């Protein structure tokens, strides 16, 4: 599906259809007909558009060395995060295509969360540049990098909740949450690292190197991306530590149960032994007494209480 946008008085506005004033075209979840139409209309290499169909497509740049993209369209392909379940996050490719005209084309398989902020009336990362390429692409890249940090904050809160729950009890559900979070963090860390490499290459392109203003904006984007790389790495180490703590708690709980059962078995062995002795067909003490049962029961109870007291003093029961 095609979406059209343009700037009016430095504010981004959506258009119902393609117009002369259109400065940004976004194609979302494209079908084969829309792909062919976009390629034919703007003479784009086919892989610029179809790359987003592969969820595992790595970030990359193409044709950035030419000045102002005058010869052929240039591509910056980056990955963006998307929440797919309560504790699950995936990453998907986003193509940003620079044409020789004042027009930017983006293509994605799913709606990126970053467009929720980039397509509002007030762009959160305003670029004071007359060139449409930078006025549109830089806010997109900044919002994309910022969206990783937003999701990482969510994951951090989830890990804190799991940590608090582990202090009270250890259940399989908590382990499943940690596995889902760990998988998400691995994907986010890989995506942010790939994005950082691609953006570093992008920052060395001729138009950005020639302008101090653009270089400063690009530096802000790189800082936001580096922050997401660092946060993802820290959260991965944190979840490894929580996993180790979880395993230690489970092991300690199992040891405590086994220690209790062993001590309980030892105490219960006392009446079993005494009962076995008095079950022998031989002469035994108190056998002629009318209160033999109560005497034997009293002796057995005394021995059991003594055994329990000793085990408790040694912290074995």
From TrEMBL:
<dbReference type="Pfam" id="PF01544">
    <property type="entry name" value="CorA"/>
</dbReference>
<dbReference type="InterPro" id="IPR045863">
    <property type="entry name" value="CorA_TM1_TM2"/>
</dbReference>
<dbReference type="GO" id="GO:0016020">
    <property type="term" value="C:membrane"/>
</dbReference>
<protein>
    <recommendedName>
        <fullName>Magnesium transporter CorA family protein</fullName>
    </recommendedName>
</protein>
<keyword id="KW-1133">Transmembrane helix</keyword>
<dbReference type="GO" id="GO:0046873">
    <property type="term" value="F:metal ion transmembrane transporter activity"/>
</dbReference>
<dbReference type="InterPro" id="IPR047199">
    <property type="entry name" value="CorA-like"/>
</dbReference>
<dbReference type="InterPro" id="IPR045861">
    <property type="entry name" value="CorA_cytoplasmic_dom"/>
</dbReference>
<dbReference type="InterPro" id="IPR002523">
    <property type="entry name" value="MgTranspt_CorA/ZnTranspt_ZntB"/>
</dbReference>
<feature type="transmembrane region" description="Helical">
    <location>
        <begin position="291"/>
        <end position="311"/>
    </location>
</feature>
<comment type="similarity">
    <text>Belongs to the CorA metal ion transporter (MIT) (TC 1.A.35) family.</text>
</comment>
<keyword id="KW-0812">Transmembrane</keyword>
<feature type="transmembrane region" description="Helical">
    <location>
        <begin position="260"/>
        <end position="279"/>
    </location>
</feature>
<keyword id="KW-0472">Membrane</keyword>
């Amino acid at each position: 599906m095609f979406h059209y946008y343009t700037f009016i008085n430095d504010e981004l506005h959506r258009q119902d259809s393609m117009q002369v004033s259109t400065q940004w075209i976004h194609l979302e979840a494209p079908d084969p007909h829309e792909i062919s139409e976009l390629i034919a209309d703007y003479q784009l290499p086919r892989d610029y558009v179809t790359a987003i169909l592969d969820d595992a497509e790595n970030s990359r740049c193409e044709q950035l060395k030419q000045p102002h993209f005058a010869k052929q369209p240039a591509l910056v392909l980056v990955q963006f995060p998307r929440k797919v379940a309560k504790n699950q996050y995936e990453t998907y490719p986003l193509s940003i295509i620079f044409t020789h005209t004042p027009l930017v084309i983006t293509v994605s398989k799913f709606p990126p969360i970053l467009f929720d902020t980039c397509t509002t009336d007030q762009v959160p990362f305003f670029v004071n540049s007359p060139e449409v390429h930078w006025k549109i692409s830089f806010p997109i890249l900044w919002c994309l990098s910022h969206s990783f940090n937003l999701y990482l904050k969510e994951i951090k809160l989830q890990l804190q909740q799991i940590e608090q729950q582990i202090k009270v009890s250890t259940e399989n559900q908590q382990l499943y949450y940690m596995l889902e979070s760990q998988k998400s963090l691995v994907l986010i860390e890989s995506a942010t690292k790939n994005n950082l490499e691609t953006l570093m290459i992008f920052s060395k392109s001729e138009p950005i190197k020639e302008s101090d203003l653009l270089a400063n904006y690009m530096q802000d984007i790189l800082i936001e991306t580096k922050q997401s790389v660092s946060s993802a790495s820290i959260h991965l180490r944190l979840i490894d530590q929580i996993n180790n703590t979880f395993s230690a708690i489970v092991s300690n709980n199992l040891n405590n149960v086994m220690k209790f059962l062993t001590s309980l078995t030892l105490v219960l062995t006392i009446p079993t032994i005494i009962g076995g002795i008095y079950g022998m067909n031989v002469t035994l003490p108190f056998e002629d007494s009318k209160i033999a049962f109560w005497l034997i029961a009293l002796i057995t109870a005394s021995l059991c209480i003594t055994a329990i007291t000793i085990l408790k003093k040694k912290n074995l029961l």
